[in-house]
Prior knowledge:
This protein is 82% helix and 0% strand. It starts with a helix and ends with a helix. The protein has nine helices and no strands.
Amino acid sequence: MLTMLAKLFKALNSESAPGQIALAFALAVIVGLTPILSFHNVIVLLLAFILRINLSAFFLGVAFFSGLGYLIDPYSVKLGESLLQNPELVPTWTELYQNDWWRMTAFNNTLTLGGLLLSLVAFIPVFIVSRILVNTYRDKLLAWFEKLKIAQMLKASKFYSLYKSLAD
């Protein structure tokens, strides 16, 4: 965990594109807010490995959003249940469930359907906010933070030596 955090700080302090880090967090929202063993999470994981994103940011984001997911699971279940029990959508769900591919997606699970819908709604805002935070960190916070005494103390710690070894 410490190594991943050091790699994330290395990416934040490097010249890598802020969009790569932001996309990693945005993809992590989908994996984190839905049940981990879902078909769509396999697709997101493949995208994470194919696209040029920061994998440390992705895995730390998955850990963060999984914790957040446990807190909002009751709301995800209610949302999924309301969609699955909507009388106007019942024929659609029945028809989709007759197809093997759609059955494999497990959208008949209230948590999967509600969590995926919430994560898709949150995808763009998380991307935008993450990108803004990375740019703000690089422009303002990094120079200010390096002047603090605690930062100078951290530079003498094991974490900083690990960070520097990864930077080389």
